[in-house]
Specification:
By secondary structure, this protein is of the alpha/beta class. It folds into 2 domains: 173 residues, 3-Layer(aba) Sandwich (Rossmann fold), CATH 3.40.50.2000; 169 residues, Glycogen Phosphorylase B (Rossmann fold), CATH 3.40.50. The protein is 41% helix and 15% strand. It has 13 helices and 13 strands. The strands form 2 sheets. It has a 7-stranded parallel sheet. Strands 10-9-8-11-12-13 form a 6-stranded parallel sheet, sandwiched between helices. β4, α3 and β5 form a beta-alpha-beta unit. The N and C termini lie close together (8 Å).
């Protein structure tokens, strides 16, 4: 008999790191023999629970009670529930409390991305991450695993996994590069620094703009403004002395084909997918000094520091040099060996096998 795994979160289907990684987990669960359904506050999910999304933040007993009833119904036929960040970060406490109540004593795999103590505005909240003896916990990095342990929660580490890019001919890649650039308003000969993130404060937009200005490139910001950042973003983009393109593009291959360099100067990230993607797509990348970035860099990546404009400019001036080629080769090898989908799926399969949760 087929087992059903319900993936539960505030939202899925976007380009944020949680959504991207959750999709790779869903694919893995299907390979393991599960039927997969999604449960969120977003109408695009298989099952929608009113108030579960990021906008449903009214924290009241009535809201929590109504959500508890709806979640109970939505998850009634699930053999296993995989919770993506909803029991980790208090973006919607009523939703988190309802989920903790509904899942108490039930098999659940809690996938932790962003704990409250990593965000100043949430640091006072201690009721999350939630835990229960029936649950298994997974952290996406060593730092978070250790922080959870300090709070009495034992978690396995499963690093994010990334697909191996399809190898295209040079002609195919050039056609893709041209087509994407034309679609977003970038000329064929422009030098492009791409910043594939949502526009929020911790993504350090000013640093990415400064890099593009320093190397004489167009600054391409891909994600929308969130968390009240719209006004500040408009000010920053209007004040930039380089050409600015703020245009979303969801096809990962197209992004990296069109870009000449990837900027990722974040001050904090739960993981940070773009530097790994850049390695796999053989693009140079400059990375901020956020803690998990240092953990990832220790695997052997050769990334530029975000403030080293001169080194980035030199690499962009000689993209086919032996030095740049060696850097790209090394980064591609490190990413392929340590952050492949196969490695991630193997770790996940072992965890499910130990818990006796496989179909």
């Amino acid at each position: 008999m087929t087992k059903r795994a319900a993936f539960l979160s505030f939202r899925f289907g976007l380009t944020d790191g949680v959504s991207v990684v959750a999709r790779t987990w869903m694919d893995a669960f299907k390979e393991f023999g599960f039927e997969v359904v999604t449960v969120t506050g977003d109408a695009s999910a298989d099952r929608t629970v009113l108030g579960l999304g990021l906008s449903g933040t009214t924290d009241s007993a009535d809201t929590e009670s109504a959500m508890t009833g709806a979640l109970t119904e939505a998850l009634a036929d699930a053999d296993l529930v995989v919770v993506e960040n909803l029991l980790t970060i208090p973006m919607n406490l009523a939703a988190s409390r309802a989920a903790a109540q509904v899942l108490a004593g039930r098999p659940a795999l809690i996938h932790h991305h962003d704990p409250p103590w990593h965000r100043e505005r949430f640091a006072h909240i201690t009721e999350l991450p939630a835990t229960d003896p029936a649950w298994q916990h997974v952290a996406i990095n060593r730092i978070l695993r250790d922080e959870l342990a300090e709070r009495g929660i034992a978690a396995a580490i499963i690093y994010n996994g990334f697909p191996t890019p399809v190898r295209r001919s040079r002609t195919e890649t050039e056609h893709l590069r041209r087509d994407v650039r034309r679609s977003v308003g970038i000329g064929a000969e422009e030098l492009v620094v791409a910043h594939p993130v949502r526009a929020i404060e911790r993504k350090n937009i000013p640093s990415a703009i400064a890099l593009a200005e320093a190397v004489g490139a167009t600054y391409w910001l891909l994600g929308p403004a969130e968390e009240g950042y719209s006004e500040e973003l408009k000010h920053l983009l209007d004040a930039a002395s380089c050409k600015v393109v703020h245009h979303e593009w969801t096809d990962v291959e197209g992004i990296y084909a069109a870009a000449d360099h990837i900027a990722f100067p974040s001050t904090w990230e739960g993981f940070g997918n773009p530097p790994i993607e850049a390695a796999l797509y053989r693009k140079t990348v400059s990375v901020g000094e956020y803690p998990v970035g240092k953990e990832l860099r220790a695997f052997g990546f050769d990334w530029f520091d975000s403030t080293d404009h001169q080194a980035v400019a030199a690499a962009l001036a000689a993209p086919n040099s032996a030095e740049v080629t060696e850097m790209l080769n090394r980064n591609e090898r490190v990413a392929s060996e340590n952050f492949s989908l196969g490695r991630m799926r193997n770790s996940l399969h072992q965890l499910l096998e130990r818990a006796d949760w496989l179909p």
